[in-house]
Amino acid sequence: MAETIYEKAAKIIAERKEERRFELRRRRSEVFSKIPRLLEIETQLDRFGIRMLNLLASGECDENRAVSGIMAENKEYVKERERLLSVHGFPPDYLDVKPACQKCGDSGFDGDKICECLRREITSIALKEANLSDALACQVFEKFSLGYYSDEFVEEYGCSPRENMRSILRECMAYADEFEKTQENLLLCGGCGLGKTFLSSAIANRLLQKGIDVLYVSCNALFPILEDMHFGREVSERAQYIVKKLNDCELLILDDLGSEFVTQFTSAELFRIINNRLINGRKMIISTNLNRSMLAKTYNERIASRIAGGFSMLEFLGEDIRKIKKLEGKI
Question: What superfamily would CATH give domain 131-327?
Answer without folding.
Answer: P-loop containing nucleotide triphosphate hydrolases (3.40.50.300)
